[in-house]
Design a protein that fits this description.
With about 270 residues, the protein is an alpha/beta fold. The chain has two domains: about 90 residues, no CATH class; about 120 residues, UDP N-Acetylglucosamine Acyltransferase, domain 1 (3 Solenoid), CATH 2.160.10. A six-stranded mixed beta sheet has the order 2-5-10-13-15-16. Helix 4 runs antiparallel to helix 5.
């Protein structure tokens, strides 16, 4: 079928469903017929239809139908959003986590990337700035229920301890880090993997440990890593492009381990 004839067929089918006597259900039916018969020619899919998973095909089909009609029903608006998130989950899970966090009620800036993030409750107490990256298994705790267990006899009406969490712009939160309530992390900060952050930190801080403490200024930390042979700098594989493992092996597999630290003498530990 020629493009012109195909276009006329779309218009004809659509017009059938836009008569004053038609119901909303008929509109949807006609749109589905268009989508099925024309095999979604205008869905901007990045993969051939035959190579997609079935659920992704169905999601894109439904989005194609709903996006062609200005539905105002709250249920349909919510359903459309669920379809959008469903497609993201199957095509860009990093961006899916960002959008899911926004839907939970947290404030999230532009160009963020979340490789893993858990906010167990009170998401509206969370504020995350632009260009911030969350590594895997990061936890933001806006409450601490330990005070209830510790003080329920002394304070029978106690509920818990709550606090906001604010993470600035251009920050990196390392793998497995935990941010506790009532903490503000400034702009351009780096939280090293496994840190437990119980205090606030100023801009340009590099922090590490449990509890986390400042180990360097950001500029000094960058210079130190830039000079390290373990740091790969390659314009072809600029982050977030995945670098082949074989190339990583060529670059770093022959490098020595970091120098072993000497154990503290027993008498020094006792004192």
């Amino acid at each position: 079928m020629s493009p012109t004839a195909e276009s006329d067929r779309v218009v004809a089918l659509a017009n059938v469903a836009t008569e004053d006597t038609c119901t909303r259900e008929q509109v949807v039916t006609a749109r589905l017929q268009v989508a099925f018969e024309l095999h979604l020619p205008r869905t901007n899919c990045h993969l051939p239809l035959t190579s997609m998973k079935l659920k992704l095909q169905i999601i894109r089909l439904l989005r194609f139908v709903l996006d062609r009609e200005a539905f105002s029903s709250p249920k349909l608006v919510k359903f459309r959003r669920r379809l959008q998130l469903g497609e993201l989950y199957r095509t860009d899970v990093v961006q899916y986590r960002v959008e899911r966090t926004k839907d939970m009620g947290a404030k999230v800036g532009k160009n963020c990337r979340f490789f893993g993030l858990d906010i167990f409750s009170e998401p509206r107490l969370v504020d995350i700035g632009d260009n911030t990256i969350m590594s895997g298994k990061v936890v933001l705790l806006t409450h601490d229920g330990a005070i209830h267990s510790a003080a329920y006899n002394e304070i029978p009406d106690i509920n818990g301890y709550y606090g906001r969490i604010s993470i600035g712009r251009n920050c990196f939160i390392g793998f497995g880090s935990i941010i506790m309530p009532n903490v503000r992390i400034g702009d351009n900060c780096i939280v090293c993997p496994g840190s437990v952050v119980v205090h606030s930190f100023a801009d340009n801080s590099v922090i590490r440990g449990n509890p986390a403490v400042v180990i360097a200024h950001r500029s000094a930390w960058i210079r130190m890593n830039e000079e390290s042979p373990n740091t790969i700098i390659d314009p072809v594989y600029r982050f977030p492009t995945v670098i082949p493992e074989e190339l990583i092996l060529q670059r770093v597999a022959h490098l020595p381990f970091s120098e072993a630290r000497r154990p503290v003498p027993a008498e020094s530990r006792a004192s």
